[in-house]
Amino acid sequence: MAFETFADFMAMGKHGPYVWSAYGITLLVVVANILAPIIRRKGLVEEIKRKAKREQAES
Amino acid sequence: MFEYLKRLYHKFGSPRYFYDLTGKMLPWLVALSVLLLIPGLIYGLGFAPPEKYQGNSYRVIYIHVPAASIAMAGYVMMAVAGVIVLVWRMKMAEMVAKSVAPIGASFAFICLVTGSIWGKPTWGTWWVWDARLTSMLILLFLYLGVMALNAAIENAQSAARATAVLSIVGAVNLPIIKYSVEWWNTLHQPASIRMTSSAIDPEMLYTLLTCIAGFYCLFGALVILSTRCEILSREQRSSWVKKLVGVS
Q1: Is residue B186 part of a domain?
Q2: What is the pLDDT of residues B106-139, one digit of tens each?
Q3: What gap in Å lies between CA B221 and CA B100, rounded to an integer?
Q4: H or E element: which one contains B79?
Q5: Residue A59: its chain B contacts at CB < 8 A?
Q6: Are B163 and B149 contacting, i.e. CB atoms less than 8 angstroms apart?
């Protein structure tokens, strides 16, 4: 363990805001990249189903 | 041997085969990235020793270095896919190249932002127009250019050919990024991890290597997730996709 207490860990020896903001921004970007294809997939499946229904109604 | 490779190539060129295979790979990649990244980052944040001169601000390297490496590797992937698109007109390569761009851009962005945040307490400035930083910024712009070009052209195949040319030409930036710290006097430090002797504490080195491996698995999973969406979108008229979605 590189730190004595949890408060020390959060403070990162005066560098806390830098380290935590870097990790926070990275987390946000990664989460956005995980969510984007999941949301897109849902939309695509719905679109394909909608199109199939319309085609069935037409024929 | 050649026949085998040819068969493999044709198999991978088939969206349906690619979709099935990556579906099997995905859970393993996700598990691996979680198993590597969570311990790697926790160790890097709380257990690895502080750096002698930089104190704790250096802990940003556990994301900065993997992100930089992936941003470049992603570009290589996109450019290689671009060559395959132009030479063999492989549809699967078009989809992979298109999917890699926003993910590679994200990692280039992470690399630049974390580096900038680290630079403030260490160099005393958020940004300098140093060769390494500038060439990395150009990499981000190249990614954004590829994405914009993809979005601007309606026809998927023409969009893929146009972006393939742009990404191949832009690949000239990659050696510039890599060797910028040797060719010019940069504020950015030269590479610390080398095949022969690494100028880095072993405890930090192994933590960093774990994080690099973890981020690569994450990158692979993200590319697969996104490419599978692209397959569904472009192959939606085919019977196997309809069956998969459950409409026929």
Answers
A1: yes
A2: 999 999 999 999 999 988 899 989 899 999 999 9
A3: 11
A4: helix B61-88
A5: none
A6: yes
Quick check: A1 and B43 in contact, CB under 8 A?
no
Residue B67 lies in a domain: yes
Torsion sign over Cα B228, B229, B231, B236: positive
Q: Containing domain of residue B185, as a range?
A: 26-47+59-245
Number of domains in chain B: 1
Query: Which of A19, A28, A47 best probes binding to B when mutated, by most B CB atoms within 10 angstroms?
Result: A19
In a domain, A3, yes or no: no
For residue B189, is pLDDT > 90?
A: no
Range of the domain at A44: 19-58
Residues in chain A within 8 Å Cβ distance of B118: 18, 22
- Count of domains forming chain A: 1
What is the value of ipTM here, to two decimals? 0.92
Residue B103 lies in a domain: yes
**Residue B131, token pair as written in the block:** 């060769």
- Residue among B57, B110, B222 whose CB faces A19 most closely: B57
Tokens of B160: 């893929």
Domain presence at residue B6: no
- The answer to whether B242 contacts chain A (CB < 8 Å) is yes
